[in-house]
Every structure is written in structure tokens, then in C-alpha cells.
Amino acid sequence: MQKNLLQGFKVLDFTHVLAGPTATRLMAEMGAEVIKVEFPPVGDISRLLPVQKNGRSAYYVQQNRGKRSLCVNLKTPEGKALIHDLIKEVDVVVENFSPGVAARLGIGWDAVHALNPRVVMCSISAFGQTGPLSALPGFDYIAQAYAGVTGMIGEAEGAPMLPMLGLGDVNTGVHAACAIGFALLHRERGGQGQYLDISLLDAYAHCHEMNVAMYSLTGNSPTRAGNHHYAVCPLGLFKGKQRYLCIITLENQWPALCEAMGQAALAKDPRYNSNANRCAHADEVIALIQAWVDSIPSDDEVLSILENAHVPCAPVLSIRELVEHPHMQLRGTMRAVDDEKLGNFTTPGMPLRFSEFPHNVSLQASHLGADNASVLGELLGYDAARIAALQAAGILFSNPDT
Amino acid sequence: MQKNLLQGFKVLDFTHVLAGPTATRLMAEMGAEVIKVEFPPVGDISRLLPVQKNGRSAYYVQQNRGKRSLCVNLKTPEGKALIHDLIKEVDVVVENFSPGVAARLGIGWDAVHALNPRVVMCSISAFGQTGPLSALPGFDYIAQAYAGVTGMIGEAEGAPMLPMLGLGDVNTGVHAACAIGFALLHRERGGQGQYLDISLLDAYAHCHEMNVAMYSLTGNSPTRAGNHHYAVCPLGLFKGKQRYLCIITLENQWPALCEAMGQAALAKDPRYNSNANRCAHADEVIALIQAWVDSIPSDDEVLSILENAHVPCAPVLSIRELVEHPHMQLRGTMRAVDDEKLGNFTTPGMPLRFSEFPHNVSLQASHLGADNASVLGELLGYDAARIAALQAAGILFSNPDT
């Protein structure tokens, strides 16, 4: 009986920081054996990121629970040989260096494929492995700006705004895991390994469900529009007594909102009786709803009235409120992680839920090089003396204070 | 020889609008046979969304290329029987109704699983299938507000801002496709079908790479911070002559930025010599960089200087600039779609790239019910007379003007 979905699959993971580690973390959560390869002396630089406690980074722990840490100097011939031997033993290789770096380290697709034709290799980068931008250094927000996403956030006449979370990196990691899963499916059906080229830019650009086609077909380039949508009305944020409230109605919910506001006649008003007409009178519609919200004594009452009328609505929650919300706790959308150095803290839950396998499995993060001996012993048959010699020669490295 | 990755897989697709159709569109792009089930008289309501031309919605076409359209009245016994027969023939069922609706329509997991134990079924919803919020109606921005995402976008002292694109829906669709791929892999290895519960809320909450742990470990709830990051400096938007520019340096790039600005000494200034120190003097760091940007005659020159110094930077592109950018065209990050009614227009490209299969395959969208006869003929052996009778009885429906 399989304990988890990916039991038996081995992943050699050369990723760092966020997009790459998200892809391999999802696989670790599904039960794959993920061997994270780190370089001395620091390893994944996210080990230095906040929040730190007892020498341990919560950022690192969140993205790397369930992975073994192998810390090896890839610039030595012995280090490279050891990695090449491991490549022969695994199903998946993932890296998120800048394009070209993996090849220079001897772990580019050509080398990996020659060593093991069954390997699925996934490269994750800001702009992709080819094209005029590919050589530029990039992070989440760099690709976000190029993808036309940043420009679509903020007041119409004001500066664009940055979302203060890793929307691009995390979702690019999900795109990568998705591609890896389908490539493994292909292999399981008799196919060979293959190479996957996943980028932040492609993943961000993918999210324009309407903007690109709108420009292309009308010649009008959509622009940012504050906190009310430019093509659906009402769809936006209203100022409550304690917080902002999101209220949305599509065609079928608009009459319910009018009735909930005690102004049922508005639903048939020719100025407001279709989304197109409401968009044409958006300022009036927004003012009408804001005036109603202003007239209700509390936000809870606004939400309660709208929920009873089946009008989609939401409080704009703070991080604190998200973490402590009963739904998030009950569903495991937020989960407690128990780390040996950080103690108990909360991270987002596993977003993929499978009826046949456990959700939010308990997994630990490794200190730098914690698994050198066990990985090389189990996969390559190295004995203790050989591992000690490699460690003494600086080819293997570990740091229990991480 | 397989023409595409998912050749031979059949998907029965009960999804509408965006998150669900994204999941099945990705599978169609990978070669799966996707049968989109729509209900008379309108079908997927996104057929009514803009941009419209010749009675056709570009929104619908973008999310539904490569799918066959079967339009059937599921509230008739014959319609339901026909769908139940199809469930026996497919590998995957996907739906994104509000929780409970699929069961009431006779296509809940219990019914589907009883009909075909090998089916992988994926439900996509705003809040998930269980928990106190699950019964509430929800869209992208509703889950975004609950997930603490909306609250992290905008000026610290101002209102939260809405990103004007479907970040949540599209990425939730990718999460769903990812889960489906791994569940099919499990089945291919000898496992049975299973049920996947994917939600916008989980997918959005998943993106807090740092905020949740930071609140949990420090007791301080992070807040939105405009267009400069609260924990990395410099990471933000600067005002150029023609546009905003994103500039980011981590520890290893800061000296290069100082040198590029002609102020190499800043790199060793004790106020600015670490990210923590720069964050403590963020206003000064931002002002220094802005003053330098102001001193350069053009944005192109700013970008050119920074690119030559290997400092991550980007112009904040408009939708028009995104669509027309050479990199996007060359890479297929933007692609031309040729639709019989809309003509030629641009959509985002397929974000998953497989070395062994073609990228951005040419696919057409179907008008409502276009494939009634071929689907029922091929999968269930219905002859023309039987299909004509069902059509005459209003159990099947089609509309070539869509």
C-alpha cells in the first residue's frame, strides 16, 4: 500500500529561494524523495532570509520541508562526478539558475540527458531559456513588470503597486510541478525523459485572461483601474467601518444586491439593468453601494445581509486575520509546522488535496548537508570512510547550526 | 508515435468562466480530448463576455480552444443518462460549480466514482468543498480578499488595490491541472481514480512565501507597503521619464548598482552595507536611486546602464507593449490565434513547454453544441436518427451563431 502519491520517485533538486523550491516542495509533500543539492558554505541563500530564530530561517523551512540536504562542492571533479552518479539514479532534475549556469556547472540538459535518458529535467527561469531577454538577471517582480502585470495594479492616474507576496514565484513553481507531473505520466506510459522550460514571464503572462485579447481586437490597451474593475460593475472594494469590503455581482446577482440594499427598483433602472450599462454609469453604481455600506452600523452586518442574499462579498483580511480564521484552520489552508529550532509556527497549507492520500503531512527541514551520508550511502553505496574523506577534503560540507 | 503528450486521454469538462476552463484548456493544449459539457440555451456564460465580434466572445475562445462542445439539458432524465454513459468512457471529470451543485445535478463524486472507479475527478471552488465558508458564493477577488492577498496590495495608508487580471483563477486552474496530472500518474502506476478538492483560497494562500510565518513567529502582521518591498531594499518601482522602472538588488548586486550609479562608495557605507541596514534607511536608499534615475536622460539609458552592470531591472510594460515585445513574439509568450469568427488575434501562449512535443499548437474553439453528434457518435455509438430525436426533444441543443 502506497503511503503517498509520489512514493518511489526521486528528485535531484538544484533550486534555490522560491520558484524552484516550490515545485520540489509540492513533490516532497506528495511523497517524492527530494534530494536538495546545496553549495558550501551557505547553501540556498534563502537560509539567510528572515524570519530567523536560533540560526534557522523560517523562509527556508517553509519552502524546504521534506527535502534531504546534500551539500557538495560542484566545482571539484569529485563533487561533479558524485552528482553525475546521482543523476543516473533519479527520475527528475530541477534547477532555477540563470540560463547557461547549469550547463557551466556540468548539469545542463545535454549532460543530464546523456547520463540518464529517462530523466525529466525542468529548468525554471525569469524569462525562459531562449530569446533576447533570457540572459538578463530576473526575479519575480522583474518578470511581473515585463509581463504587463505590475502595470495593471494601482490607481489609474497613480503609480503601479507591488503585491507584497510571491504570487509569481509560487505560481511558477506550480506551473513547473504541473509540467513535471505530465512529463512523468508520459514516461510512465512508455515515453522517454524530456526537458521542460518554465518561466516566470510565461506564467505571469498566462494570467491575462482578457487584457491581451482586448488590446489585440480593439487596439485599446487596458490600464490599471484602482480598486474597481474596468469591465465588471459592481466589482470592487468599498470602505466599511473597520475595513475594506469586496462586493461583486454578475448579471444574475445584481437584483439580489438591489433588494438587499432596500432599493429593488434599481435592478430595472435602465441606467443599471445590464453590466454594460452599469459600467457606463460606474461612478453612480459605486456611490450608491458605498452610501448603503455607510448606512449600516457594522461591517459584520453588511456581510451578513449580503451573504443572506447570496451576493458574493468578502472582508479584506489582514495576515493576522487570515492565519486565525476558523475556516483556514479547519481546512488546513493554514497549518502548524513544528520545527526543531523554530518551534511551532504557521505556514500556508498544501494547496493540492487528494482523496486517497493524507493532506498536510508532517515533514521536517534539514540543516545544510544533514543528509550527505544517508543520501550517498543509500543511493551510491558510499561507506562511512569515503564520506568522511570527502568531508575532510571539503568536497562535502555540512553545518548543523542552520 | 504520439502527436502530443495527453493523446488518448478523455476529459469530461463541466467547467465555466475561468479557473476550471484553464485547467482543461491546459490539458487540451497537451493533446487530451476535452469534451466541454454546456447547458442550453447559453452554455458557458463566458460566451457573453467581451470582447465580442460576429457573435463570438474572445474570452470564451481564449479559454476553450481545442475543446469539443456538447450542449445537453442535464435536468432531463435522458440528458442525465447520456452524461452518465459518457462518464463511463472518460479518464477525468472536472467541474467548478459552487459546492453541492454537482451532486444535485447527479455528477457529484459519489455518483461519478460509482459509475467509473478509474475516473480522476477534480472540483474547483472558491473556498473548497468543506468548512464554514464553503457554501458562500465566490469569485477570484472574493477568495483573494479572504486569503490576505488584496490587503497586501496598495499604499500603506491608502486603500487596497485590485490587480486587473485573473491571477487567482488562472493559477487555480494550473493548481488543478497539476493535481490531475499527478493523480493520472498514480493511476498509470496501478492506482485507482480519486477526488481532488482545489480552491482559489488555497491557491492564493499558498503564495504567502513569508507573510504567514512572519506574523506567526513575530506577532507582527505584515501590511501592504506601496511599491517598495517591506523586507528587501532596494526592491521597488522608480519613476522614469516615460514610465515606471523596477529595480532590485540583493546583497550580491548592491555594489554593482552603486558603481553603475557612479557612487561606488555607497556600497561600503555602514548605513547601506546590508539588506537589514538598507531597510532601516529605506527612504534614503530609495531617494538616492530616484535621484540617479532623474539624472539620466532616458529610461532606455537607465535600463541599459543597469543591464550592463547585471543589476536586475525592468520597464513596467503596458499591455500594448507586452503584446508587441520581440521577446514575447519570438518565444511564443504571446501567440496569434486564428478564429473563424474573430479572425486573427493575440492570446497568452501555453506556459508549459515540453521538449518532446510542439509548443502553441493550433486549436479551434467550438460553437455551442457543435460536437453533439460527433461526441455521441464516437463515444456512445449514437446514430444520426437518435441524435436528431434528442435535438428535437430539446435534450441536445446547438447554436452555430456563438
Q: What does this 3D model show about the protein?
A:
- Two copies of one chain form a homodimer.
- The first copy, chain A, has 402 residues and is of the alpha/beta class.
- Chain A has two domains: 10-207 and 362-392, 3-Layer(aba) Sandwich (Rossmann fold), CATH 3.40.50; 235-320, formyl-coa transferase, domain 3, CATH 3.30.1540.
- The first copy, chain A, is built from 17 helices and 13 strands.
- Chain A has helices at 19-29, 58-64, 77-87, 101-104, 109-115, 140-146, 167-188, 200-205, 211-218, 254-260, 275-280, 282-295, 299-308, 319-324, 326-331, 372-380, 384-392, and strands at residues 10-14, 33-38, 52-53, 56-57, 67-71, 92-95, 120-125, 195-199, 235-239, 244-248, 313-315, 334-339, 343-348.
- In chain A, strands 5-2-1-6-7-8 form a six-stranded parallel beta sheet, with helices on both faces. In chain A, strands 9-10-11 form a three-stranded antiparallel beta sheet, with helices on one face. Chain A has a two-stranded antiparallel sheet with strand order 3-4.
- The radius of gyration of chain A is 25 Å and the shape is elongated.
- The two termini of chain A are 35 Å apart.
- The model of chain A has no long low-confidence stretch (mean pLDDT 97).
